[in-house]
Amino acid sequence: MRKILIIAAASIGLSGAVQAADITGAGATFPFPIYSKWAEAYKKETNIGLNYQSIGSGGGIRQIKAKTVAFGATDAPLKGEDLTKDGLIQFPTVMGGVVPAINIAGVEAGKLKLTGELIAQIYLGDIKKWNDPKIVAINAGLTLPDANINPVYRSDGSGTTFVFTDYLSRVSPDWKTKIGTNTSVQWPVGIGGKGNEGVSASVKQVANSIGYVEYAYAKQNKLAHALVQNADGQFPAPDDKAFQAAAANANWNEAPGFGISLNNQKGANAWPITSATFLLVHAKPEKPEEVQSALKFVDWAYKNGDKLALDLDYVPLPANVKDQVRNAWKGVTDPAGKPIF
Amino acid sequence: MTAATDMMTGPAAPAIRKTPKGTFDIVFRNASFIAALMVLVLLAGIMLSMIIGGWPAFREFGLGFVTSSVWDTQNDQYGAWPAIVGTLSTALIALVIGVPLSLGIAVYLTQLAPAWFKQPVSTAIELLAAVPSIIYGMWGLFVFVPLFAAYVQIPLSNIVEGLPIVGTVLYSRSPSGLGILTAGFILAFMIVPFIASITRDMLEQIPSVLRESAYGIGATTWEVVRHVLVPQAGVSIIGAIMLGLGRALGETMAVTFVVGNANRLSASIMDPGSTIASRIANEFNEAMGLQMNALIALGCILFFVTFVVLVIARILVSRVKSY
């Protein structure tokens, strides 16, 4: 009789554990493909699933503040004071780059050179034609048409726009004062496409256009990209090495919660428009076991997920950054104040 | 005694049979009352939650929320005017293009079409009405927009450039194919099936004796349509148009794909713009704080605009009826 009771209790405990084991998360759409890829592999190994809803960064921040999920995901990092106010811990998971995509007859991928200042002036409407002397000056040997530039931007609020406008704010004082940095801004000129697919469709179809999309998206859809001058004055090709170079030279402890920008970092090979995507967890979670299982999942992804990330054109974090993140997890404690990871 | 009982139960029997029917009737009556009440409760609930959700934006900007053209998430300044203008102008363009087309289809199908042609066209219209709006949006973006840019916008811009009025209204600085006019076209394609099929049904209900007498006194087809059919079905046709207008005002996905999503006001219908629904669809995911309130307030305004349009439609219908 007693045995049966123990078995019954154990099985109840087990089934309870299996049910509680599914990790819940919500937020950014940009890292959704890699999170689901990791989750698939993780489930095979541990039988713990991930229920991630890609509802956008804003939604992810709302959900984690409301404590309806174990972790929230955002492309634009929260500021230190916001993290303290809501008792959140923030850390990066993977990185990606944003590239300008162009459609100019006769100009091949990787041939057109631009600077951040030029891109800012194009999106401000100050540079109107492709054969503007300022563009021609750094593109000797390239025949540029006497045609109006059609700038294309993301019309939906998005982390991609945040990274892009953050970059422009860093390189152009004019942009910083007139437009600024946000997930959506008041664009003075151009047409808006919804999502990466909306932007790329517009760039492909509209002659003499320029847009900006995630590197993975540009690569998979074979959009012609332009080169952008980095802080060292070089024009590196956008690829995983260039994004890693940007991350390697960054000082990740500059901002609370690793919330630094990887834009315009020093380094001859660093791609100037690079960014990490972030997760948010409560420092003193009401249900520590849920957050613990979320952190274990991220730890597993740090150890085993780099190859999967590269396959999908995301860029893994440098090893020393991963260690710093694991160190930061010590701040996540159960009600008794004991670190749960 | 048994006979007496029989006699007593005899007349009472209908009453016994009636009772369960009566109970059922009461249940049925209450159930349908609750169903009807649900509509009112739902409507009141939606209105209330939108007013509460949008209140911070209305309080912050007052009437300026409706009249201002600024939409600046950076400094938390919001104005709905370009979106309101975009909503009304795309819907108006859709009606201008769609209504004559729909009426033409309905008249042709009911009055002129040979039997072998009538059935396929009717089925096609019903199928078109069932196509999800996102399909219209994708078709618009990938098929219609490039063709429209190449064969309408660019040639037209070359013709009207520099002319007074049309040089402003129809000129596009960057002929991308996306814009208010394109959205109007896509909306027109979307509302045609609705208006056409309702109008066709209405025209078919007109007693054929009316039509035949008109033909009998020597009226031409046009005269029959103009003086017999349209006055007979007038109210229903206006109703059908209003139904289409309602869809055009609130349509979201298809418009978001093709309207160009610029939060600016432009004098040209070739330029990109935005509608209330498209702006909500674009920004809702990432909206925080006052921006969220402003988006809900936009929804509130759309609700109000649709309501006003319906009231105007009602007044029109009642005036036509009284003639």
Automatic annotation (TrEMBL), chain A:
GO CC list: ATP-binding cassette (ABC) transporter complex
A biological process from GO: phosphate ion transmembrane transport
Q: Which domain of life is it from?
A: Bacteria
- Is Signal given among the entry's keywords? yes
Report the InterPro entries cross-referenced here: ABC_phos-bd_PstS, PBP_domain, Phosphate-bind_PstS
Question: Which Gene3D superfamilies does the record cross-reference, listed alphabetically?
Answer: Periplasmic binding protein-like II
Domain called PBP: residue spans: 20-302
Signal sequence segment: 1-20
What keywords sit in the KW lines?
Phosphate transport, Signal, Transport
Q: Which positions, given as ranges, span the membrane?
A: none
Q: What SUPFAM superfamilies does its record include?
A: Periplasmic binding protein-like II
Question: What Gene Ontology molecular function terms does this protein carry?
Answer: phosphate ion binding
**PANTHER family this protein is in?**
PHOSPHATE-BINDING PROTEIN PSTS (PTHR42996)
Q: How does it assemble?
A: The complex is composed of two ATP-binding proteins (PstB), two transmembrane proteins (PstC and PstA) and a solute-binding protein (PstS).
Family of this protein: Belongs to the PstS family.
Function recorded in the entry: Part of the ABC transporter complex PstSACB involved in phosphate import.
The entry's protein name is Phosphate-binding protein PstS
Q: Which species is this record about?
A: Bosea lathyri
TrEMBL record, chain B:
Pfam families, sorted = BPD_transp_1
Q: What keywords are annotated for this sequence in UniProt?
A: Cell inner membrane, Cell membrane, Membrane, Phosphate transport, Transmembrane, Transmembrane helix, Transport
Identify its membrane topology class.
Multi-pass membrane protein
GO MF: phosphate transmembrane transporter activity
> Where is this chain primarily localised?
membrane
Residue ranges constituting the ABC transmembrane type-1 domain according to the UniProt record: 84-313
The UniProt similarity line reads: Belongs to the binding-protein-dependent transport system permease family. CysTW subfamily.
> What job does this protein perform?
Part of the binding-protein-dependent transport system for phosphate; probably responsible for the translocation of the substrate across the membrane.
Entry protein name = Phosphate transport system permease protein
